Amino acid sequence: MKLIDQLIETRFWALMLKEVSQILKDRQLLFLLLFPPTVQLLIFGFALSPEVNHLKLGVVDYSNTPASRELVAAFTANGIFDRQYESFSQRLLGEQVRTGQITAGLVIPPDFNRKLSGEETAEVQVLIDAVDANTAGIASGYTTQIINQYSRGLDPDRAPDPIEPRVAILYNPGLNSALFFVPGVLGLVLTLTSSLVSSSTVVREKDTGTLEQLLMTPAAAWEILLAKITPLYILLMGDLFLALGLARVVFDVPFRGNLLLFLFLSSLYIFVGIGVGTLLATVVRNQRQVVLTSFFINLPLIQLSGAIAPIESMPPLIRYLSLLDPLRYYIEITRGLMLKGVGLEVLWPQALALLLFASLLLAISIRQFRSQLS
């Protein structure tokens, strides 16, 4: 007790109480310390999952017999594959895989039932989109397991196996994980850099007191903000070219699409990042709050984008929340252009989403910035 009494009487105790009192009075700091970690823990706990479920499956059943329908039902019975598309054209099925509308395609030949009845080996073809090498590897393993289990159910003692799968790994035959992660990391780099740099640039005006000097300049608010945005845009485009060069030289990531279209859509996303950073700078007071708040915003954007964990494996609520994530659309654009070579005829929904996000965020940030100057 004597030791505790001596501690209470020291200057250290008085200073510590003062700091605690200041922290308790700073409601914004308490919000940043309590709310973001809680939300992030909930989001990450649901979004990060090693399981692969609800893969989109397309089916071309040339046989159209009870045996072929049972095979399709075996694929969709356990929730790993969800039947999304059915056609009688193998070419259209391949196009569905190419455009990303399905993850896997199952082609059952017309002689499927005849070979099973004649104790011959029936071949089925499986097309797998291997842009995500991890998902493709797991899907390939699931495919083989499902077909083998179905074959054993037909005749456990039959040799050779009644059905032989022919699995075609598309767009990433070597299952190189870098081809999936590098385009995603490119989007992450642009997100973090554009938001942090733009927010820090505006907040620095508050810290140094030069924001008041801008009020004295004979320029409109949009001119002041445009003068800040333009150099940032040029620097961020330089970062984009640097990232593309590293992806090609170091990781051997191909670029199969239209470069001008990629640069245009990347410009839209850079404006999204600048809009997020500028809006963030108008609601915080100093550099410390910029860093804390940016982590609260950027980490959920990253985790919900599909850059690390497949969106298909997330719970339905998280999948719906990811529709509000502009990074999701940009990563779909980078992977589609770089790895598959698709064009605007496929990527127009993602491009339209980026245009809407960029317009909305820039409009709100300009309005907030103008209100601060006035």
Main features:
5 strands, about 375 residues, abc type-2 transporter like fold, about 65% helix, alpha/beta
Provide a descriptive summary of the structure in words.
With 374 residues, this protein is of the alpha/beta class. It has two domains: 55-170, abc type-2 transporter like domain (abc type-2 transporter like fold); 177-373, no CATH class. Helix content is 67%, strand content 9%. The chain has helices spanning 2-8, 11-25, 27-47, 66-76, 90-98, 112-117, 133-154, 177-208, 211-215, 221-249, 259-283, 287-303, 316-322, 326-340, 344-373; strands spanning 55-61, 81-87, 104-108, 122-129, 163-170. Strands 2-1-3-4-5 form a five-stranded mixed sheet, with helices on both faces. β4 (122-129), α7 and β5 form a beta-alpha-beta unit. The protein is elongated, with a radius of gyration of 27 Å. It starts with a helix and ends with a helix. The mean pLDDT is 79.
* Helix and strand pattern: HHHEHEHEHEHEHHHHHHHH
The shape, in one word, is elongated
Strand content bin: 5-15%
Q: Specify the structural class.
A: alpha/beta
Tell me the distance between the termini: 58 Å
Q: Give average pLDDT, whole number.
A: 79
Question: Could you give a short account of the major beta sheet?
Answer: 5 strands, mixed
Number of helices: 15
Helix content: 55-70%
Please give the radius of gyration in angstroms: 27 Å
The strands making up the biggest β-sheet line up spatially as 2-1-3-4-5
**Tally of individual domains:** 2
How many runs of DSSP E, i.e. beta strands? 5
Low-confidence parts lasting 5 or more residues at pLDDT below 50?
Answer: none
